[in-house]
Amino acid sequence: MSALLGILGGGQLGRMMALSAAKLGVRCSIYAPEKLPCAGQVAPHVQGAYDDKEALARWAKNCDMITFEFENIPLDCLDSCAEKLFPSAQSLKFAQHRGLEKTFLSSCDVPLARWMTITNLHDLHEAAALLGFPFVAKTSRFGYDGKGQYVVRGHDDMTEAFSTVGSDAVAEEFVAFEREISVVCVFDRHGEVRAYDACENIHRDQMLAQTRLPANISAETANMARQHAVHIGKTLQHVGVLTTEFFVTNDGGLMVNEIAPRVHNSGHWTMEGAITSQFENHVRAVLGWPLGEVTRLGSIDMRNIVGPEMDELRQNPPTQWSFHDYGKSPSLPGRKMGHRTKVSVGPPSS
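User: That's the sequence. What structure does it adopt?
Assistant: Structure tokens below.
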């Protein structure tokens, strides 16, 4: 019988991972607390809380290997999965807490904006003295798509900023950047790595709206971003996909923004735009299989479909794009509902 891959989390990343695994003849089992997560529409689903250690252990016992599609899983509940879990709990630990992530990245000697830990309101005033205005305060846990962040522009913002981010937070120097890019890499268990081409990311309302390739950066900048991303993954001894996000500064330099130890929204273009998608390569790495080639197949334009925009597209699916509906409902404002991708020989359309 084919391998059974357990996936912790039932969102769209788990859904696309399960679909890619099926292409390889690999069975998947989804573990998630929701009654019917969108990943559960394409693979068998076991409903259970992440902190239910007994239920998690019963599920894990039947899996050959286990991975995850999002970070916010209690680390102390993963003991029963540890020998089968890729990426490891160490990768999760750093991704779950911005302070730990920044400390780890500092140890990697990659370019970072100045930062400091925030535990009280006084610390915010210390951050102003160290970093100057403006600076960005970010909650250390459960922050994504711009949630739990506050741009502090002056002393009058301090109280509201602290109310937003709380007593477990970081303050970061405000980076004047020209564009945002990311590099998706995949690492196997034996030190082999494949790095997809750097992609350029456009955000709206602090959420990824569009990814374009080739990124509008120099070959030197692209190569340096790739080197940093690979170095971070190897230092972490990561297995699977790891995404590193960068700011490209106005003078052409790079600053690492954050890492994600999993398949990533900015890598969705690889489903049509590369020989092997990030999802398939993640499955290959977790199962100990050889990694697939990551050559880009053309110019790429990937756009997220958010909220009610999906309602019309379900009635009239686009004909000039590869269309992905995540099967979610309802289509609430700000909710990622799907994406569409175009691969062409010319530059991405406007």
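The first strand starts at residue 4 and ends at 8.
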